[in-house]
Amino acid sequence: MIPVPGHIARYAELADDPAAFLEALHRPLPTDLRWNPLAITRRRFEEVLAREGAGWTRPAGSGDLYRVTGLPGPGLTWAYHLGWYHPQGYTSTLPPLVLAPLPGERVLDVCAAPGGKTAQLAALMAGRGVVVANDISIGRLTVLAANLERLRVPNAVLTRYRGENLPERVPFDRVLVDAPCSGEGTFRVGGGRWKEDLPAALRKLPGVQLRLLRKAFRLVRPGGLVCYSTCTYAPEEDEGVVAALLEEADAEVVALPDEVAGTPGLTAWAGRTFPDEVIRTRRFWPHHTDSWGFYVALLRRRD
Fold first, then answer.
1. Which of 85, 201, 207, 302 is most buried, by the most CB atoms less than 10 A from its CB?
2. What 8-state DSSP symbol labels residue 252?
3. pTM (predicted TM-score)
4. What is the pLDDT of residues 192-224, one digit of tens each?
């Protein structure tokens, strides 16, 4: 069994079933593939899976996700290189689904690389409108560009800015802030890893995340939507950041669709109380979804 650092104990009071949570952390991840409607019809995609000898299920509320068995090396197939699907964990597909962009809209992905969520946003928009895909790292932008080309995304524009320094020239209808985080939810990826330096991360990251979220609210139009997400369990990076924004911005938390599973956001942690509406945000646990740990909040700018 892969050892889990001691600070996992801080989440014992958050998980509804701590034993099931720990057990899920040590199970291999399932193979989740997002069908790409920009490249192939659903019927044809399912025919290809069947011909490859793969079986599949479709988790509730998962949109175009297929949980596949019997397909070793999904990144090595000809169908992958043709852009017919993208390996993407179930919970990783939820932020674009929750943001729900419409064809013809202006959408911003603040921290876009490596591009799975950007391509999913474009697919939800049927390739119409524009998705501005931003990232600070030139190396990550290279990977982002390659993925968007492979996935046949026709409506993306790539930019390279620090997220908090994005120019405020054009208002967006919707903004995704899939923020850099301590990454605790990715423990199951690559055989298990966990941040040993969580205290250091918590001194730095919430400030970065709040600055990105503030910028998103300056960039979205009045009435527009911002989705904030992380792949960590730390309340300081999740509900704490959303609560800090609510204290200073004319924003409201929008309830997520019922079909999107998850547990309600926290209203208190470590002596700090959060606004009641933060309960409308969602936490996603591996023992519930058999996927990565994730946090998702949908916010509307009022003014």
1. 85
2. E
3. 0.95
4. 555 557 778 888 999 999 999 999 999 999 999
CB 217 within 8 A of CB 245: yes
d(CA 45, CA 42): 5
From CA 200, how far away is CA 207, in angstroms rounded?
12
Among residues 88, 60, 41, 146, which one has the least CA distance to residue 49? 41
Distance CA 303, CA 295 (A): 25
Widest CA span in the chain: 56
Counting Cα atoms < 13 Å in the Cβ hemisphere of 199 gives: 3
In single-letter form, the type of residue at position 215 comes to K
Q: Which residues does residue 158 pair with via DSSP β-bridges, in sequence order?
A: 133
* E-only strand ranges, the chain: 31-35, 55-57, 65-69, 85-87, 106-109, 130-134, 156-159, 172-178, 220-230, 251-254, 263-264, 268-269, 272-273, 282-284, 294-301
Helices (H) and strands (E) in the chain, counts: 9, 15
Q: Is 111 a catalytic residue?
A: no
User: Token pair of 43, please?
Assistant: 């019927």
pLDDT in tens, 227-271: 999 999 999 999 999 999 999 999 999 999 888 889 999 999 989
Which entry of 111, 181, 227, 231 is annotated as an active-site residue? 231
Taking the C-alpha atoms of residue 3 and residue 6, their distance in angstroms, rounded to an integer, is 9
Contact 287, 23 (CB under 8 A): yes
- Tokens for 87, please give them: 């390996």
- Rounded CA separation 112/103 (Å): 19
Three-class SS of 3-67: CCCHHHHHHCCCCCCHHHHHHHHCCCCCEEEEECCCCCCHHHHHHHHHHCCCEEECCCCCCCEEE
